Amino acid sequence: MTTLDDKILGEKLQYYCSSSEDEENGDSDSNSNTPKKNERSLQIETSQLEKWEGTSQNTGPKGVITDWQRFKQLESEKRNECEKERIALAKKLTLSVQSTLDEEREKSKLEDPEISELLNDEFLLQYQKQRMEEMLKQQNHNVKFGELIFLKNSEEYLDAIEKEHKSVKIIIHIYEKHLKACQIMNSCLAELAKVYDNVKFCAIIASVAGLSRDFKISGVPALLIYKNGILIGNFVRLSYEFGDSFYAEDVQGFLIEHGMLEDKTLVPKIVKSINDQSDDSD
């Protein structure tokens, strides 16, 4: 017999599927799938552990220190390797250059013996000496003085300038006998004449040279430098520069500073050897 519940539901109660039964079935299905998911997660974690290389970003203080030490070790090893490569490359290039020069010399010996002779170091040194000797002869013309020359009158003054070889440098001291600075200057020039024997050092009294009264009072001691008949240096009132007490080294430094004398300390060794040989031959 149909009841009120049957009419409301439209079907019999035994054919009715309640939601509670569905929920129970759903729970049972989910419970059955849970073990499978857990098994997959375990497999993933296991594979990740197998790939781990000993370093991790999420470590404690000890792990951070270890990572930093490892990083510095790798950096130093890389730097050492780069340095070794640079040294090896430099050695290789050096050896290649030396071998190339040797090959060129051997090749020149086979092809042209004259060129191989030009490449010889002894030949080049000998050629340099020969050229320096020629240049020194042209410059100095083998003229030697070695002493201070006192000029007696204006004619000797002009002859000392005009009749000398064009390559000779002439330094003339204009002085007065009663002045102490002039006396010291004469003694200094006498010493320098021995050192620079290729330079002509002269001295003349101002009144004998025909100079004015004012120049004799305030212009001496004075040094006039000539070369090839041309005045190239004019230094007056040198007592203001040196005072009443000075030495030959002071005058030498002054003339070197103004380009009137050569600095002996800067003469090349090859020139010194040529000069020594010429002195021995004399």
UniProtKB/TrEMBL annotation:
This is Phosducin-like protein. Keywords: Phosphoprotein. Pfam families: Phosducin. Gene3D superfamilies: Glutaredoxin, Phosducin, domain 2. Coiled coil: none annotated. One of its GO terms (biological process) is regulation of G protein-coupled receptor signaling pathway. Residues 16-63 are annotated as: Disordered. Residues 36-53 have a biased composition (Basic and acidic residues). The keyword Membrane does not apply. The keyword Signal does not apply. It comes from the Eukaryota. Belongs to the phosducin family. Residues 49-267 form the Phosducin domain.
